[in-house]
C-alpha cells in the first residue's frame, strides 16, 4: 500500500512540477483516505458525471468495504480490489449514495460476477480531469476523463478476447433496480435506480439514465441478469435458481435488480477502445443528446484537454505565489474541491427533473444540485460569491426553483430530492449572505418570502421541526426533540439573523426587529455556571445530570447534533458580543474559547466549531491566537496526501475553510459580510473578480509570508493602514490591494 | 364454491340460450378446473392480450396457489381470492408463465400489497370476449373485453376514494423485473420481464411492454416499490428495510423486481372508469400504437361488440345443428379453444421480436407464436388446415420465419423464444401435413430444407438430441437419454415419415426412400413377448427389469416421456399395418389396443395415446369399438362445466380432439391426409370452406344422431356409398355432403 502511494508521488511529482498552471497543482488523491470521501475520478467543473475507480466492494477491501460498514465513497485509497468505474458519484459526503453505472474492462472469458472479475491495480495516476491505472489481472490500461455530463474512458487492451462490462447491479447506493438494453454493437442504454441517501426517504428514490457509446463495434454483445433466489417448492424446479444468466445477442430491455450489459471483442493486436457514457436525470434521450452535444466526434485527448482548460480557467481565478509546492497543492486541490458540488443537474437542453415528482422542467440557467447546506452555508457559498459570483447567482436561482417546485427552500437537496439531512434552515442564510455581498440578480422578494415562510409556518414545516416551542419558549427542549434541541435553536437563530439582515437591507423594519429579537434566543440556553450551552427541559429546567463532553465523535445526545456543548457554544457568530457579555466579558470568553482547543474538544472534522479559530479576533489583543490556531490547523489537517483532509470534505466545506484560511481571510459569520483576518500562507494572492458583479477587476493580497513569518504585524488596505482584524466584503472587493506585514513573534503567554 | 358455480349456471343459461349464434354457445369456464388451465378472461381471436381474473395468489387459494405447487394458469375456478386481472396469459399450458401486468381496482385508502388488497368476488360471468364480476370487498363491478393487442376493462366504482393498481411485481411467471412510469393522469407505461417457461432457459427471458390509458384523469397518481430486504449492518440503518414505499406524483421510471403504479380518484357519485392496456413485445411505442390503432376512441361496448362479431364470424365457419345444448356448448367452446393459440406476436405495424436476440423485425403476414407443437401437430393444425387454411398458412410462414431467424424450426416456441419443451421434431410434421392438404402458398423448398436439416445434422442439433444413435441403431437407448428413449424414437419416426411424404410429393425419390426407411425403425423396440414397446440398452439388449406400467401419471422413466409403454406403443399411426404385423396380426393388435382401455392405461389427458380410439378403424369389422370409445370419452371428459376438459387443454389440442370427434372425422395420422371416421354428435355439421384453398364452398355432414343412434350403419359421400372408415382430405373437401346413417346396435361381444 505504501509502495503504491510512493509510486504515485513519484509520478505525480514528475508530471506536476514541470509546469505551474493551477490545474497542475491539484492532487485528486487528497481526501481519498481518512474518510475524506473525495475520489480521484475525473470530473468537469461542477459536472454531473465523474468516472471514479470503484474499490469498495469485495472481501479484499474489508474493513473499508461498502457492505460491512457505513461507507460513503466509491473509492478508498487504502483499498486494493477494483470492480469498475462508477459514473455518477458524490464527493465528500457522509452518506452512501450514487456510485452507479459501473464500467469494467476485462479480458478472456466473460465473467459478470464482480467478486470474480475484480482486479488489483497499479500505476495509479490522477490529475484534474484525468485518471489512469493498470488493471493487474488483465494488463489493461485504463484512462478516464469527463465533460459535464459525459464520462469518457480509454481502455488499452492486450490482444485476445476482451470485454467491457456495464454493471447496473453493483453500486454504492442502497437502492436497487435497473433496466438496460444493447441498442447496437456500439451503444448501450439504460436506467439505474438510486436514492435513500442516509438510509432515508426511500419514497424519493429516482432514476439516472445513461447511454454508453463505444468507439469500436463489439464482435458480440449481450446482457446478464442475476435473478432473485427462490425458496420453497419452486426452487426445486429451477436448476438456475439464483444464478446469473448470460443473454447473448439480446436486443431488448432487461429489467431487474441485478443486471448488466457487455460488449465483447477479439483483438488481433493490442487495441484501444474509447467509451463515452452520457448521463441524464430526465431521460435516455437526453442522456444521448448530452453525449452527442458534449463530445461529438472528439477524441479522448481533445476532451481531456478541454476539461483541463475549463478547470484551469476557473482555478486561475485565484493565483497564488510563494509558499511551498505543497502549499500550492493543498490550496488548488481545496479550491478544486469547492468547484465539484453543487453540480449541474440539468441536461444540455436545459431539462431537469422537478423536485420529488420528477416531471420534466426546463431552465435557462444552470440548475445546480447537491446542496449540503448545513455544511456549505458557513463558508463555501461565501467563497463562491467572492470568486465565482455568476455561479453563486445560479445557485441561488436553483434554490428558488426548488422553492417554486416544492414549496420550500432546500435543506440538503440531492438530484431533485430533498433528503432533509441534518438540522436547521440554512438556505435563507446563504440567500441573505449572497444578496448582502452584492449579488442581487435574483428575485429577492420571492426569496425573502420563502425564508419567512420557513421561519413562521407552524404546521407541516419540513425545514424547522420544533418551531412552535422555538417561537413560544425561544428554544427547543428535550421534549421537542430527542436529538439536538440546542443545535436546532442555534441554527434557527442564525437563520433568523439572516432574515433580519436581509429585511434591514430591503427596508422591512418591523421584520428586522422581529427576527433580530428571535436571533438571540439561544442566550437562555447558556448555563453561566459552566459558560457552556445546555439543553433545557419542557418546564424550563436544565437537563440534569449533564455532561458537556457527551456528543463528541458524532455520539447521539439530547442537546447537540454531531457535536457537544464545547463544539456548539461559540456557534453564535452573529452574536459574539452578546455571548461574551453573557460569559462575563472578554477574558472569560477567551478563556473558554481557548479551553475548547486546550481540552481537545475542538473538532476540525465537522462544521459547528469550524469558525472558532477566528473568534479570538473579536477580542482586541487576542488576534494572534487566531493566527496561530489557524496555521496549526492548516498544518495538521490539510496535507498533500490521501489523508490530507480532516474528515468528510462535506461537499467542499472543509476545503473552502482551507482556501480562505490560506488567503488570510475568513467569512466568520454567515449573513454578515465581514471577513475575519489571519496571516496568509502565500506571498501573493491575486483574486480575479467578476466585473459583472464587482467594480474592480482584481484583488491582490501580498505578504512576506514564510514558515517563520506567521503573525500579523500590520495590514494595509488600498495602501492605507487597516486597524481592524475584520474587513467588510465591499471594502475587500474594492480594495485592489491588501498588504500584510508578517513577523515571527510568538503568541504571548496569557 | 358449489354455490358460485350454480349461480353461474343460472346466469349463463339465461343469457346464453335466448340466442343461437355460435358465439353464444361458448362457455369460457370450461377447462378452468381439473388442470384444464384455460381461463375465462376475454380474448380476441388469436389475440396477444387477454384479461384474465387472477386468483392463484395468496393463502386463501391454497392448495391451488401458484407458489405452493406447480400451477400453470392465472385462474382456477375453485379459488376465491382475486388479486387482479392479468393482461398476457397462456391458455391450456402445463408450465407457469406470463400472467403479468395485473390491474386491480380498489376503494378507500391506497393499499399495494396484493395479500391485503385482494378480494373475494361474486356474480361471475363470462362470454366470448367478455368477463365480469363484482369484487365483494369493494362493491366494484368489473367488466372486461379485448382487441387483439389491447385489454379493455370497465370498472364501476361506488362513490368515494378509488384506486386502480397496475401491479408489476405479482405474476404467474417465474421471472421478475419491471419498469413503470406514470406518463400523465390518464396514462401509465412500462415493461415487465417474463420467461423461463417450464423453469428452463432463463437466459431467454424477455420483456413485455405496455401502455395503460384511463378514461378519467386521476386526481392523484404514483408508483410503488418493494425493495430487496437487506441483511447485515445496513439493515440496521434502514427503518424502511423491505417495506413497500409509495412515491406520490412520481413522473419518472421506477425499476425493480416488485413495483407498480396507481391512479387514484375521489368520486362524488358512482362512476365508471374504462381502462385500456395495449401490449407489445417490441416496445412501449408499439404498445401505445397498438392501443391507439385498435381502440381509438371506441367505447367498451363497441369494442366488445366487435370482438364478439369477429369471434362469431370465425366460430360460424362450422355450424352445427341437432345435439343437445350442452353438445353445442362443448363443441363451440372447444372450437373457441383452438382459436386462442397459436396467437399473434406482431404489433399492429407488423413489428415483432426476432427469435432469442429480440432485434426488431417486420412481417407482412401475421407472425404467430405459442407453438406447442408436440401437442398440436396431432390434430389442431389439421383442424386449422380444414377450416381456417389462411391462418394455417400464416402459421407455417411463421415457422419459416423462426427458421430464418434461429436456424431451426420451432419445437415449443413462445413469444420469440424457443423453450425446447418436450421431445421430438414436430414442426416438419405440421409443414408436411399442411402442404399435403393442399395449402401450398409458402416456400416449401425452404421448409423441406429446414426439415432435412433437423433430421440429419448431428452436431448442435437442438431439435433431435440423440440423433446419432437414432441414425446408427435406429433408436435412442437408455444410454442416449435418461428420459424417453422410446418416445423420442417414435417422434423422430413420425417426423421422418412426414419428410418422406413431402419428399414423395416434391419428387425427391431418394429422400422418400431414405426417410421412409428411417420412419419405421421403432419396430426394433417392440418386445413381441409382451406386444409393447420397450427401451433398449446401448448394447441392443432390452432394459431389464421392465414394468410397462411405469410412467403413467407423468412419472419420469427411461423409455417414455409423460407416459408408459401402453400409452406409446400404438403411437405409430403412420405404420399401423406394420405394427399389426409385428404383433401377430389383426386380432392380437385389437386385443392389445382394447387392453389399453380395459386395463385403465388409456390417458385422455395427454397426447401420445390421443389417436388410439380411432385405431380400431384399421381392422375391418372392429370400427364400432372406435365409435363407442370416442363417444364414451366425449361423454366422460368433455362437459359443460369448469372441469369439462380431461386435463391441460394443451393450447387447444384436447379441444381439437373434441371438435373433430364430434363432427365424426379425425386426422388419425399426422402427415397423412386420411381422416378416420366415427359417428358424429350432430344431425348436421356445415363446414364453410375457404374458396382460396378449396374448390367447394362448404361441406355438409348430416346424420340421424341421437343419444341412442351412436353407431354407423352406413355412410354416403357426395351421395354415394362410402365403404371405408377413412376418408381422404381431398375427397372430404370436395364431397359437398357426407351423410351418416346411424343406428343403436350395440358393439358385438368379441
Automatic annotation (TrEMBL), chains A, B:
One function term, GO molecular function aspect: carbohydrate binding
GO biological process, one term: carbohydrate metabolic process
Keyword Calcium: yes
Domain of life assignment: Bacteria
Swiss-Prot/TrEMBL cofactor(s): Ca(2+)
Record's keyword terms, sorted: Calcium
Keyword Electron transport: no
Domain Glycosyl hydrolase family positions: 286-743
Annotated InterPro entries: 6-hairpin_glycosidase_sf, GH-type_carb-bd, GH92_a_mannosidase_put, GH92_N, Glyco_hydro_92, PNGase
Pfam families recorded: Glyco_hydro_92, Glyco_hydro_92N
A single GO cellular-component term on record: cytosol
Domain Glycosyl hydrolase family 92 N-terminal: 25-280
Subunit structure: Monomer.
Protein name from the UniProt record: Alpha-1 2-mannosidase
